Amino acid sequence: MSSSKNTERFTSKxxxxxxxxxxxxxxxxxxxxxxxxxxxxxxxxxxxxxCLLLVGLPVLLAELTVGRGGRGSASxxxxxxxxxxxxxxxxxxxxxxxxxxxxFYGVVAGWxxxxxxxxxxxxxxxxxxxxxxxxxxxxxxxxxxxxxxxxLITAFVLIRGVSAGIEKFNKLIVPGLVILLVLLAIQxxxxxxxxxxxxxxxxxxxxxLTAESALVALGQAFFSMSLGMGTMVxxxxxxxxNQSLGTATVAVGVGNVLYALLAGLIIFPTIFVFGIxxxxxxxxxxxxxxAAFSAMPFGALFGGLFFVLLAFAAxxxxxxxxxxxxAFVRDQFKWSRFKxxxxxxxxxxxxxxxxSISLGGKVDWLMIGGKSLxxxxxxxxxxxxxPIGGLLITIFVAYRWEGAAxxxxxxxxxxxxxxxxxxxxxxxxxxxxxxxxxxxxxx
Length: 443
Description:
The protein has 443 residues and is mainly alpha-helical. Helix content is 77%, strand content 1%.
């Protein structure tokens, strides 16, 4: 796929489905409920929506615009539009970021498939020590097999191309995701005592809003939209000229908010009913919630459905993340899609193996400064590479690329708002995200 010969295209509906599939991932399910509870429930949720408007949507539209204007990978699109290899290097940074993200994301996505099977068979609930079971699992070799399954599914979708692969897959999976979210939310809300969890989630406590909560909300708005790692630039390259990028951007934002809302309505009633603390990260999903499912009627069924939901969300994101590297390789080496997918997915799989092994803490050279290689790659990608990528693309569209206004297709009023946001608001806020999550700003 050279940028001049990129003829693969999404249909209008298919693109929106794919973009929503890319943006809804594991973070909204295990981190969003935790930080929402920590920073004032609905007060934080409203702050999150405000941050989406200030950062998420403007930067998302900027990335889509670059992709459709350049009609290539993240790197070649920026090179073409700027006439500078320096800006192409910015695109390459996002490619590196997405590749590294996929190397550990594939590992975690594999965990969800394993736990879905464990739950449906009832084996997940044969022991009460859920923390021990999880620690033993991620410290062994089994996750590598599940990581391979995730990579094979992702590669299969990408080999089929944009329309027959990515689009059809998301058209099938995203509605399934919605059905599972609604079913699980209904089930959680029907639990005896669920109202306490709902009240904790939806009752605003503005006294808990602080400068730190604002930075956390900014980060959640940025990361939940798949920004800074070239996914939306790459998807933008496959968008038809008659597709309204503004409408698509709003649709993705709304989808993101609804996903976060339903996630909260699943998590909070469940943990409140069973007296579980809303711990952050893997501990919530793979330790705390299985304990809750084990105590509820038909827990094996609902636990299995929950992990299938997570697997759906993970793999739709994985498809978009791996496509960034595939598009780059096709641009650079003029390879076929089949060869590009096979080579990239194979390298990415083997890159993920040491990350998975490092979680057991058994291999000394995979531990650096007391942290696993997995945690280091996660930290560098999420907290440094992605915000830098998003920041630089925002600056490029705001100050360097004169054709951005025309390519965006916005009406004059919305265009003025968008350009103002990109020039004076979004870059400052993304910079704050970078400084906070990199540990430079401490509150």
